[in-house]
Design goal:
This protein is of the alpha/beta class and 340 residues long. It has 2 domains: 2-126 and 282-338, Medium-chain alcohol dehydrogenases, catalytic domain (Quinone Oxidoreductase, Chain A, domain 1), CATH 3.90.180.10; 130-270, NAD(P)-binding Rossmann-like Domain (Rossmann fold, 3-Layer(aba) Sandwich), CATH 3.40.50. It has 10 helices and 16 strands. It is globular.
Length: 340
């Protein structure tokens, strides 16, 4: 089968950073695995972090990729939710070979049915960032997707134009929050507004006076999706007593979690989308349920794909370009590739 992978961990401007490969087919699925024919993929910061330069070498080559949409071709003997021919989407498992290949084995508990109103490319943009935002908001935090008690409360999304931010804006707005996103460029500001943000402020400028100008003295929930260290102190200032802060980016240094966080009883919540698969938790099937719920919401017109650019066929040159764009820090939404 065709695949894109790496033998060395190199800077993305090195042509050997990602290579076109021909590898053996994965064979029949066992247990609760599906064998999926990959039709489209998208790229996330985790891909670039997994590929980041270091001295190790891989033999056989390592296949990355943690967002995919495709068609089920075969099912393992323990599979109960899918059959050959089903169109699916998922983010997979960071501990197993990735989806940058023509065929992929994945546990059915991590897989949802593809939204029928989206093509494979638009569907592939969704899984990882949607799961991250949903788990953070509605499973790590004590918030409810369908609970209008959040009406009138303010939710701040730092890094609103990124993949996770794009979904967090949509989900938080549906849950009834007044959503304030941060962005610093005209394109990213417009993107946040398209995703449903009520207001956009500049994260390169002090946040409190910008929020005060909007009549917002404090926020009940803050998602720091960009830089945990830089915004830690200001979020402690902005968050209301008994508020919540959500984090996905590992800090560079130790965080001071005493006052004002302690004095205000602020909940601190970490999200790592791969935790369930990595530790084989008893509730792995939650990701299947979330993706199915989101597919229904997309098909009902309540959520939208976050694809911002289609970079062409799935091959090494196009994947290197996707990694390059992500590492530049200037992308909005999600970058997708489709077809072989």
């Amino acid at each position: 089968m065709k695949a894109v992978g790496l033998r060395q961990y190199l800077p993305i401007d090195d042509p050997a950073a990602l290579l076109d490969l021909t590898l053996p087919d994965p064979g029949p699925p066992s247990g609760s695995d599906l064998r999926v024919r990959i039709q489209a993929i998208s790229v996330n910061p985790v891909d670039t972090k997994q590929r980041a330069p270091r001295p190790e070498r891989e033999d056989p080559p390592r296949i990355l990729g943690y967002d995919a949409a495709g068609t089920v071709e075969a099912v393992g003997p323990d599979v109960v939710a899918f059959a050959p021919g089903d169109e699916v989407y998922y983010a997979g498992d960071v501990t197993r070979p990735g989806s940058n290949a023509q065929w992929h084995l994945v546990d059915e508990r991590l897989v949802g049915r593809k939204p029928t109103t989206l093509d494979f490319a638009d569907a592939a943009a969704l899984p990882l960032t949607t799961l991250t935002a949903w788990e953070l908001l509605f499973q790590r935090m004590p918030l409810q997707f369908d609970d209008r008690r959040h009406a009138g409360q303010v939710l701040l999304v730092i890094g609103g134009a990124g993949g996770v931010g794009s979904m967090a804006i949509q989900l938080a707005r549906h849950a009834g929050f007044t959503v304030v996103a941060t962005a610093s460029r005209a394109a990213s500001v417009q993107w946040c507004l398209q995703m449903g943000a009520h207001h956009v402020v500049d994260h390169h400028q002090p946040l409190p006076p910008q929020l005060q100008a909007l009549g917002i003295a404090q926020v009940q929930v803050a998602l720091n999706l960009a830089d945990t260290d830089t915004y830690w102190d200001v979020l402690g200032e902005l968050l209301a007593p008994q508020g919540h802060v959500g984090l996905i980016v590992e800090p560079r240094a130790a965080l001071r979690i005493g006052d004002p966080y302690k004095a205000k009883c602020i909940g601190i919540h970490w999200e790592f989308m791969f935790a369930r698969a990595k530790f084989r938790t008893a509730d792995m099937i939650e990701q299947h349920r979330i993706l199915n719920r989101v597919a229904s919401l997309v098909d009902a017109g309540e959520l939208r794909s976050t694809r911002s650019a289609h970079l062409g066929l799935i091959n090494a040159a196009n994947l290197r370009e996707a990694h390059r764009q992500l590492e530049s820090g200037g992308t909005v939404g999600k970058l997708v590739l489709a077809g072989w």
